[in-house]
């Protein structure tokens, strides 16, 4: 379900990464090559990017397929950024949340996307709802599994956890409550990229010191793309990529609410 991509590099038009490549995210909306679940990602899309000197990203999101938005091509042609996160969506369940359900989700300097699905949603994660402050639940952008996953991650970020720790703690927590969930998460603050491979494809390529791309699947046939093993945490910046194994969870009582 869904395809997503994050990139750190020199400032360039968004379309250079999302539209121009022969198998870019734009094309993956109707013809993904390595998607294991679903075939078409036409239930919304979004892109978030950072302007120089501003730590809070801008977002452009829509409820329909990316190819049907005639304004996106112009935006992608002229807007330049050295850091972005984008996604095309294949909805787990039909809903009325429109573009609010489309990634990237945002909070402060962070952009976030979830490629996958939570098994048994929403009943399976009811046990985790009380671990969040009531205000976090009431301010969720959408009534979807991805929005709830983001609420769990964001609570950890606001508590001071680094991005890698926030994802590494959230994924096993959800997997313990909802076994069989697919939890490929993608997070950036404009300077780093953090991601998990948990149930679906994830790849990366890097030109050390210049450009790093992390994506659900390669956007071209360059041999420098490397696949991330399943059950792995990826942390990256413009100079290096680190891969750390993630352990399958052991069921444990839910934690106390965060305050």
From TrEMBL:
GO terms for molecular function: hydrolase activity, acting on carbon-nitrogen (but not peptide) bonds, in linear amides; transferase activity. The keyword Protein biosynthesis does not apply. InterPro entries: EgtC, EgtC-like, EgtC_Actinobacteria, Gamma-glu_amide_hydrolase, Ntn_hydrolases_N. It is an enzyme of class 3 (hydrolase). Pathway: Amino-acid biosynthesis; ergothioneine biosynthesis. The keyword Hydrolase applies. CDD domains: YafJ. GO terms for biological process: ergothioneine biosynthetic process. It comes from the Bacteria. It catalyses: gamma-L-glutamyl-hercynylcysteine S-oxide + H2O = S-(hercyn-2-yl)-L-cysteine S-oxide + L-glutamate. Keywords: Glutamine amidotransferase, Hydrolase, Transferase. Catalyzes the hydrolysis of the gamma-glutamyl amide bond of hercynyl-gamma-L-glutamyl-L-cysteine sulfoxide to produce hercynylcysteine sulfoxide, a step in the biosynthesis pathway of ergothioneine. This is Gamma-glutamyl-hercynylcysteine sulfoxide hydrolase. It comes from Streptomyces griseoruber.
